[in-house]
Amino acid sequence: MEIWINPACSKCRSAVTLLDAEGADYTVRRYLEDVPTEDEIRDVLGRLGLEPWDITRTQEAVAKELGLKEWPRDDAARDRWVTALAEHPKLIQRPIITADDGTAVVARTDEAVRDALSR
Hints:
The protein is an alpha+beta fold. Helices cover 39% and strands 12% of the residues. The protein has helices at 10-21, 38-48, 61-66, 78-87, 110-117, and strands spanning 2-5, 27-30, 96-98, 104-106. It has a 4-stranded mixed β-sheet, sandwiched between helices. The N and C termini lie close together (10 Å).
């Protein structure tokens, strides 16, 4: 299991605390420093069953600069969104846990973290 975190994020810290409390075996990826590639983002999206715009933090300053709210949300625009996430990792929703069964969850709640642990 791997968790993508930003250490400055309270939800990320809470998720890590819960993983530790449960004795989970996991690795931490500080995704702002160890930026995921476009292929890794596509893989995680597939594991999440989501589209790139579903995990994009549209309130970030860079999102506003790029005008993301105006971008189309369709198959033709999917690669453009993935590229934006890879070029601006701060846009990626966090934390994301990749579970051992090949799935993933956006672990913003204790319930989502527990869900990942149960897989």
